[in-house]
Amino acid sequence: MIQRLLTTAATAALALTVSVSTPASAAPVLHQIASGFNQPLAISFSPDGRQFVVEQGGRIVELLGNGSQRNFMTVPKIVVGGEKGLLNLAFPKDFATTRRFYVYCTSADANGRLQVEIRRYLTIAGGTQLGDPTSGTKLLAYPKQFENHNGGWMAFGPDGYLYLGTGDGGSGNDPANNAQNLGALLGKILRLDVSGAGGVPPRTNPFYGINNVYWKIFAYGMRNPFRANFDSATGDLYIGDVGQDTREEVDVIKAGTSGQNFGWRVREGKIQNPNYPGVPTPAGAVDPIYDYAHGYDPSMGTGHAITGGVVYHGKLPELQGRYVFADFIDGGLWSIDTRGGSFMNMTALLGRFGTVTRCRSAKTPRTTSTSSTTTAECSASTIND
Questions:
Q1: How many CA atoms are closer than 13 Å to the CA of 158, on its beta-carbon side?
Q2: Highest mean pLDDT among 5-14, 97-106, 335-344
Q3: Which positions ≥6 away from 113 have C-beta within 8 Å?
Q4: How far apart are the C-alpha atoms of 46 and 94, rounded to whole Å?
Q5: Which domain holds residue 306?
Q6: How far apart are the two ends of the chain, measured CA to CA in Å?
Q7: Measured in whole angstroms, how far is the alpha carbon of residue 330 from the centre of its chain?
Q8: Residue among 110, 61, 56 at smallest CA distance from 85
Q9: 15-16 and 379-380 as β-strands: parallel, antiparallel, unpaired?
Q10: What whole-number distance in Å separates Cα of residue 365 and Cα of residue 330?
């Protein structure tokens, strides 16, 4: 379990290293099983437990055990660079029989303009061992004026629907106010039913049937939800939403609820966005359960770009039921309880099981209204119990 937990939190930083399980009777240890990836951004698990690393350049790599790996598929016709590229991968519960899987990427439309795209692919006929790059079907695409804030999170929820997090469209401070506009797909959590030929909004989506509103919207008021995760015990959705110049935040959508407005662009974390002083908070806006300030000391819980993480349900009592997450720029690895309190710096805890190296991005933290993805020269080890 903790392998999934920590690799999810750490994969925004680059030379990825992941770990294997230890015997049930043994203490957890840090142990490398794979490395040598080129800008890994996510790890995805198929329903049968296979592990896949998503590289920004388009390659999907399956980890086979004993340090070996193979190229599952390279996603064609994508636009790569900065915050663009192959951003995520998701498998439905019926992957073994339908052979379907889904990717979140940036691409160019017929006129060469940047767009975000959700595609469905099939594995090569006869099994699920390799993806077929010629089988792509576009399920959703929307244009973007700016190159940053492309979101990137995508996963199937406990209800079997496909969820994804979209960025606010880019630049800085959401100049078009997309996040508050229910007539735009930007700055949202979307929910799609992809069990048929396409991707349609479930009738239980909160805005279904309302005129001049995208029915695919599940929640809104997001800036750039790069990573999120469903709590495997409760079904609650925890979202790491990357901030602008002052705060990073953790938002929660409780199982069985929807339609939340998390307040961006007026709210940043639990405070007023300093770039919009005096602008009223949207009616009914929901504060995050946790936010943290920008700063340069991860030991004190400050950073510059939340990556997100997962709620832990494993064998370590210190972490039981806690949300564990990371910061991309400053390399902090922390946990909080699911109410947003009881902050814990994870570095000391994990140091009991092996050497922990904090990866700090080579990028200078944001001092302007725009941001970009960068790389770092370090490895991220993880632990499994």
A1: 12
A2: 97-106
A3: 143
A4: 10
A5: 2-384
A6: 7
A7: 18
A8: 56
A9: parallel
A10: 8
Q: Look at the chain and report how many structural domains it folds into.
A: 1
**The pairing of beta strand 188-192 with beta strand 217-220:** antiparallel
Pairing type for strands 29-30 and 383-384 reads antiparallel
CB contact at 8 A, 53 and 70: no
3-class SS at 228?
strand
Highest mean pLDDT among 59-63, 332-336, 349-353: 59-63
Decide if pLDDT at 219 tops 50: yes
Q: Work out the number of other CB atoms within 10 angstroms of the CB of residue 340.
A: 17
Q: Considering the entire predicted model, what is its pTM?
A: 0.90
Q: What is the DSSP string of 15-84?
A: EE-B--PPPTTSPPEE---B---SSEEEEEE-TTS-EEEEETTSEEEEEEETTEEEEEEE--S---BTTB
- The number of residues in the chain equals 385
Q: Cite the DSSP H helix spans in the chain.
A: 2-10, 95-98, 346-350
Residue 372: give its domain's CATH number: 2.120.10.30
What does the pLDDT look like over 182-212, one tens digit per residue? 999 999 999 999 999 999 999 999 999 999 9
Report angle CA 56, 53, 101 to the nearest 5 degrees. 90
- Element containing residue 112 per DSSP (H, E): none
Dihedral sign computed on CA atoms, order 24, 332, 150, 283: positive
The type of residue at 104 is Y
Q: How far apart are CA 121 and CA 102, in angstroms?
A: 6
β-partners of residue 325 are 309, 334
Token pair recorded at residue 237: 């959705």
CB atoms within 10 A of CB 157: 14
Type of residue found at 236: D
Name the token pair of 10.
Answer: 């750490």
